[in-house]
Amino acid sequence: MNSLEPAPTLDPTDELVSALLSASRALVGVSARSIATVEHRVTLTQFRVLVVIDTHGPTRLNQLATRLDVAPSTALRTVDRLIAAGLVDRRDNEQDRREVVIRLTAAGQDMVTEVIGRRRRAIGEIVSQMPLDQRRAVIDALVAFADAADEPQAPEDSARRLGW
Predict the structure, then answer these.
(1) What is the pLDDT of residues 44-90, one digit of tens each?
(2) φ/ψ of residue 155, rounded to 5
(3) For 7-55, how does the pLDDT look when each residue is reduced to its tens digit (9 = 90+)?
(4) Is 117 helix (H, G, I), strand (E, B) or coil?
(5) Helix (H) or strand (E) holding 84
(6) How far is 65 from 9, CA to CA, in rounded Å?
(7) Is the pLDDT higher at 116 or at 3?
(8) How far is the C-alpha of 115 from the C-alpha of 118, rounded, in Å?
(9) How much is the pTM?
C-alpha cells in the first residue's frame, strides 16, 4: 500500500467485535485467576454449574441441563461429582414431591461467594484505571451487549449474581 493512500477503515461491527474480543481475553484472564484457588476442588465446568444454581436457585436437572446447554446425562454426571464433593445436594421439590431439585450446600455457596468476590475485586481494579468520563459509555455498551445475548442483568448489590 502506498503511504499516500488512506488506511482502510474497519466496518463498525468488525471494530466492535475486535474490541469485545480484546475485553473478553482480559475477562477470561480475571476469571481464570479468580478460580485458581479452588481448581483443586472443582473444574471450570463444575464451577459454572454452581454459578447457574446460585443464580437461579434450586433447580430441576432438566432445567439445569437446558441452562447449561448440555444433555441431561452430562448435567447429571456433573451434579453427581458436585454432590460427592459436598457442594450441592438433591432435595424433594417443595412444590411437587415427585420432583427432585438440586441446590447449593453451604460449602457450595461459600465457594461461589469467595470466587465471585475475588473476581469482582480484580475487575474493580481494572475499572479504577479507566478514565472516569468513559465509564458510563462502557456500562451502557455492556448492558446493551448482555441484552442482545439474552443474559439477565445482575443486581448491583449482589456479587453472587455476577457469577460466571
Answers:
(1) 999 999 999 999 999 999 999 999 999 999 999 999 999 999 999 99
(2) -60, 145
(3) 666 678 888 899 999 999 999 999 999 999 898 999 999 999 999 999 9
(4) helix
(5) helix 72-84
(6) 43
(7) 116
(8) 5
(9) 0.76
With 0-12 CB in 10 A as exposed, 13-18 as middle and 19+ as buried, what is 102?
buried
Query: Coil, strand or helix: which one is 1?
Result: coil
CA dihedral defined by 107, 99, 62, 143, rounded to 10 degrees?
Answer: -60
pLDDT tens digit sequence for 82-112: 999 999 999 877 777 778 899 999 999 999 9
Q: How far apart are the first and last CA of the chain?
A: 44
| Of 110-114, 116-120, 150-154, minimum mean pLDDT range | 150-154
Neighbours of 88 (CB within 10 A): 26
Selection from 61, 17, 37 nearest residue 116 by Cα: 37
Cell numbers standing for residue 40: 483443586
What is the grid cell recorded at 57? 436457585
C-alpha cell at 65: 441441563
Give the Cα separation of 116 and 108 in Å (integer).
12
| CA-wise closest residue to 63 among 94, 108, 103 | 103
